[in-house]
Amino acid sequence: MIKDLTEGKSSSVLWRFSIPMFVSVIFQQLYNIADSAIAGKFAGESALAAVGASYPITMIFMAVAVGSNIGCSVVISQLFGAKKYKEMKTAVSTTLLSCGALSAVLTVLGLLGTNGLLLLLNTPEDVFGDGALYLRIYIGGFLFLFLYNICTGVFTSLGDSRTPLYFLIGSSLSNIFLDYWFVTSFHMGVAGVAWATFLAQGAACILAFFTLLYRLKKIQTKEKPPVFSCAMLKRVSRIAIPSILQQSFISIGNIFIQWRVNGFGSSVIAGYSAAIKLNTFTITSFTTLANGLSSFTAQNVGAGKTDRVKEGLRAGILLAFLIAVPFALAFFFFGKTMILLFLPGDADVGAALSTGTAFLKTVSPFYFVVSVKLMADGILRGAGAMKYFMTATFTDLVLRVVLAFLFSEAPAFGSTGIWMSWPVGWTTATVVSCLFYKTGKWRRGRV
Question: Whole-prediction pTM value?
Fold first, then answer.
């Protein structure tokens, strides 16, 4: 259901809009976790390590999809808030066509460069083959991933957070079922995990695409909007390209960190793979709330109602804190139990278990800090203040990568030194994001 986010009590409007998005991310992360858990439990520690070693590379492709999602959603939200429906429809069709072409190019490049990317990551020989197989199947479904993200971005731009939820519930449950079926019944190993994601994502993409076309037809315009506009592409790109670069640099930073992790062997890779999946669940939850705040901000900036954004920030931080509490408590006090969900029960998993537990104990107390950063980032991004948004993000990224290498070189820390870089990067970047928000320069949004 399309909804105007510029009317009504700000906190109530934002919460009603954001909570379905949070539920969506729960299902999305459940099937991401299922990939690793089923691989580790039923295909062994090496399979878990193979999926984990591939993870930073898959995040590069996800970064392009998410960055494009952000670019179109900010522009579409502002146009929708300003009631410029003709331009809004052109923005949607222009983005879909452009992203379809871009995804085809990236698929070819990814398939050709799979082995080279894994070599750059210093991937151990015992997980290299499975990692390459997983990556090729994943990259083959990139078109589905890309278009699905664009469709969900458009839905949320129009104030509809429920439709993406329904698609994600269906996609997640089917993916988990296929994961288990392919791995346990057909003994497909890592390939089964990858094909399950491919098929579930593909079905969700097709349904979302045709649902979006149907919804857009119901929005009436006086004139038929152009299907493609170079001017609109340029406008969307003004937000999308910095967002893609920002997301990609984060992924590249994670590749450097993965390279360092890989140097400690497959057991540490397996433990890190399990822990980073759990951590990603938390951070993606915050990011999803921030995306909701971005849509809220963009619509209100487009409508010239910037005073509502301050109220939205308070409501967003409160909601993020409520979500941070169970994650922080579970990971800090019960991290060992949660890491064991990913590891085979009939093998020596001591090194993997201690690695994953150490990571969770180190980062989980700082979830309250990073949630504030992500909420402030949501406003900066929604208002189109990409220079400030990227500066805050790169501050976190650079610090984490540099300190991960420095701390892990210290004999007293070893691999634990890598995890210590997270709190430092998050805390510093939170201060930067909040200072940018306080300047108020983000209010100069354009429509």
Answer: 0.71
